[in-house]
């Protein structure tokens, strides 16, 4: 599917004359696929987990954020594909716009696709997501190691949801996600409150 088509929903929800979010005009990625985790202080505080798949960022809303503890199973609700440039977006989405609120880049980096079939043969990552189970290794500033996304059915007539889980043995240093209001951007070192204040002065 062309990038234009994959970003149709994303663009249809936004007025780019009002929001500073990227419209998705550029579509170039590096040799290794990228990931980003953004904290989004919108109507409800949540984390946005995004993986580069081909020329877009596949996206999930994770209310409690990713955890380093394999015992934590974090709900991940799929959202629309985002442009690759969204990896760098940090700022305030105006009130009244879709997703209105403050965004910071909590973590970013590259990832290794690890999905394989029952015989241990590598499986295309996009295909593994279509099939409902994908494994990958994150190389971020804060998140490291193997994770899995697994789709499940709610059984209530609603859209499918996913679980984001850290794989591997439990470790003494494993911890949940920090307080999002105290968390700092991996790009600028700012908190949500500081980004909101800085944008308000511009």
> Radius of gyration, Cα only, in angstroms?
17 Å
* Multimeric status of the protein: single chain
Taking pLDDT < 50 over at least 5 consecutive residues as the criterion, the unreliable ranges are none
Helix content: 10-25%
Reading the helices and strands in chain order gives: HHEEEEEEHEEEH
Strand % is 35-45%
Strand order of the biggest β-sheet: 1-2-3-4-9-8-7-6
Mean pLDDT: 89
Number of strands: 9
N- to C-terminal separation? Answer: 38 Å
Helix count from the secondary structure assignment: 4
What about the largest sheet? Answer: 8 strands, antiparallel, barrel
> Quick one: overall form?
globular
Structural class: mainly beta
Describe it for me?
- With 202 residues, the protein is mainly β.
- It has 4 helices and 9 strands.
- 13% of the residues lie in helices and 36% in strands.
- It has an 8-stranded antiparallel β-barrel with strand order 1-2-3-4-9-8-7-6.
- β7 and β8 (144-152) form a beta hairpin.
- It is globular and about 55 Å long.
Topology of this protein?
Layout: H1 3-6, H2 8-12, E1 34-41, E2 45-53, E3 56-62, E4 73-82, E5 91-93, E6 101-113, H3 125-131, E7 133-140, E8 144-152, E9 161-166, H4 192-201
Antiparallel strand pairs: 1-2, 1-6, 2-3, 3-4, 4-9, 5-6, 6-7, 7-8, 8-9
In short:
This protein is mainly beta and 202 residues long. The protein has 4 helices and 9 strands.
Main features:
4 helices, globular, 202 residues, mainly beta, 36% strand
């Amino acid at each position: 599917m062309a990038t234009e088509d994959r970003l149709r929903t994303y663009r249809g929800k936004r007025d780019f004359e009002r929001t500073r979010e990227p419209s998705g005009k550029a579509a170039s990625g590096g040799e290794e696929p990228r990931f980003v985790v953004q904290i989004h202080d919108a109507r409800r505080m949540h984390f946005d987990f995004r993986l580069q798949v081909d020329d877009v960022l596949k996206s999930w809303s994770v209310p409690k954020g990713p955890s380093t503890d394999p015992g934590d199973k974090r709900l991940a609700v799929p959202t629309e594909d985002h442009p690759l440039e969204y990896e760098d977006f940090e700022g305030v989405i105006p009130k009244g716009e879709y997703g209105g609120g403050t965004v910071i880049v909590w973590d970013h980096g590259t990832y290794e696709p690890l999905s394989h079939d029952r015989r241990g043969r590598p499986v295309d990552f996009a295909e593994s997501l279509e099939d409902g189970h994908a494994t990958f290794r994150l190389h971020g500033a804060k998140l490291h190691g193997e994770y899995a996304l697994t789709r499940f059915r709610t059984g209530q007539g609603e859209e499918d949801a996913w679980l984001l889980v850290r794989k591997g043995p439990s470790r003494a240093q494993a911890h949940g996600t920090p307080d999002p209001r105290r968390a700092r951007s991996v790009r600028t070192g700012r908190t949500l409150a500081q980004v909101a204040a800085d944008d308000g002065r511009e």
